[in-house]
Amino acid sequence: MTTKHNILLVDDDPGTIKLIGCALAEVGDVRIATSGKDGLRLMRELVPDLVLLDAEMPGMSGFEVLEEMKEDPILTAVPVIFVTSHSETAFEVAGLEMGAADFIAKPINTPLVAARARTQLRMKGLNDDLRRLSSIDALTGVANRRWFEESLEREWLRARRSGEPLSLLLVDIDHFKLFNDCYGKPAGDACLRSVAQALVVACLRPADSVARYDGKEFALLLPQTARAGAEHIARRILDAAEVLDIRHESSPTSSRVTVSIGVAYYDTAGVCWLPTSADVRNANTARARDFARALVKAAEAALSAAKDAGRARARSLDIVDVDTPGMTRDIAVADRGQRTSGPTEFVAAAD
Fold first, then answer.
1. What is the pLDDT of residues 167-176, one digit of tens each?
2. Model pTM?
3. Measured in whole angstroms, how far is the alpha carbon of residue 203 from the centre of its chain?
């Protein structure tokens, strides 16, 4: 079975809506917006596979909608077909230079609309496959660092607009160089793969993701997860390292492979939390990058503190304390907290 495509039609003309809606009924599930502002709202609620956009609408033109889409990491890759009564070459060139995928001229030819929509959806599918392949770490099979950095920006914007928390874990394999020196690179590669797959098991939610961050470090990005939930995952990962039971006789910490974990979070309990009603339109790409750097810096500081405290443990740091690493606190393994607003069952994963 193939999943039906999610198509958004943004147009203020009832006649055009009816014609295009009928033309695309067999192509995918069509949602309707009658203004540019409403169209952007629907896109951010559920990112479409394709947008058909009226170039000329009152209030916010199609060109303005496209411009905002291209500035949004969540929407920038969505193909847009302009629907317009203009036939001037300069008009089409302007749209294509902004990033439009195609133009459909009025009056509407329904078979042509369906054919062009299918073409753009096929091309998007191929591009998505290429992006997935280019985002995978070849050794471990999880996402690579570039994908992680792009995802962190997207998830920050999504968190700001939806008013939901976001957490990040950095997981480091303790004394991995000593492991490689003792057992050899093939054994080291096998250890990395085991850790990676264990972390994938740790991510029960579809939105959770694991990436190889830097050599022997991995990043877990946890949308819709506040500090209690993130710390719960950290405890389970520490337990999972014991379950994995990989011998590491050269480690000064333990005779088995252990991990250290740094946890950072942005949630309602933090001083820097902003309600969704506060300046959401300014949650743009530049601010997303600033936030990404701050969240990673906080997780790195917490990870460093965990190593300094003896390794094989987890420490956490609120993003508001990113410039005060001394504010990190230990995550007690004995305390079995529950993950907030999500699954409470957790399969112990090897780390």
1. 999 999 999 9
2. 0.77
3. 13
